[in-house]
Amino acid sequence: MIMHDFEYVPKEEWEPIRDELLEIIHRLQNEVRDDFTFQYHFVGSSKRKMITRDQNSNIGFDFDVNIEVNDPDEDYSAEDIRNILHKGLDRVTNPYGYSIFGYDYTEDSTRVLTIKVKDRANSCILHSCDFCIIYECGDGRQQYIRYNKEQRSYSWEYQPKGYYDLPIKIEWIKKHKLWQQVRDNYIDKKNTNTDDNKKSRSIFAETIHQVCQQNGYYR
């Protein structure tokens, strides 16, 4: 059985990393400005100040950032946008063929672009940041650029349905002063999770739905 030992990362530890990421993002905005501009938002655990790490693992803690590209005339394809940002990140973090911030070269996965700071001597990741490229559709829905590894293609896809229920439920929870229950349940769920493929965002969504259910949530 997989044993986890998740803890909340202290603010004094994650805050300087977030400030460094802000500098990287601002440099990235300048780097890609000839193609397009973009807005960004920290999301997920970094937005909620619920950053965790598993003391029994070697992957450290991570940040999540949404990037929304300003391309109203759709001059750029999903692949163009993803590649421009990917190359831009590499030029910002590794401008001379070696890193000035400590981040390795950008990795391309299904939903996100990821940069990581690795401790190679101890074979571990100290911290990382996932960048998801999104588009707000204006009807309450959101799309993101998805990378199909098998077909080596990029496309705009809608976020899954459960994504849209969360903000309303989070607002209800905060209104009823139940956030500490969310924090306690979330860390418990992470420590008892046995599915390596289950992401933190899924565990958080489960936690929100559970706290609502336990406290008589209704709309």
Key words describing this protein structure:
seven-stranded mixed beta sheet; alpha+beta; 39% helix; two-stranded antiparallel ribbon; single chain; 219 residues; 6 helices
Describe the structure in brief.
This protein has 219 residues and is of the alpha+beta class. Helix content is 39%, strand content 26%. A hairpin with a 4-residue loop joins strand 6 (113-119) and strand 7 (124-136).
Characterization of this structure:
By secondary structure, the protein is an alpha+beta fold. The chain is built from six helices and nine strands, in the order βαβαββαβββββααα. It has helices at 11-31, 44-48, 78-93, 162-175, 179-192, 200-214, and strands at residues 6-8, 37-43, 52-54, 61-70, 107-108, 113-119, 124-136, 142-148, 153-158. The strands form two sheets. Strands 2, 4, 5, 6, 7, 8 and 9 form a seven-stranded mixed β-sheet that branches. Strand 5 and strand 6 form a beta hairpin. Helix 1 (11-31) packs across helix 3 (78-93). The mean pLDDT is 91.
Broad structural category: alpha+beta
Total of helices = 6
Count of extended strands: 9
Look at the structure and give the mean pLDDT.
91
* % residues in beta strands: 25-35%
Proportion of residues in helical segments: 25-40%
Outline type: globular
**Helix-strand string:** EHEHEEHEEEEEHHH
Q: Radius of gyration, Cα only, in angstroms?
A: 18 Å
The separation of the N and C termini measures: 39 Å
Largest sheet: 7 strands, mixed
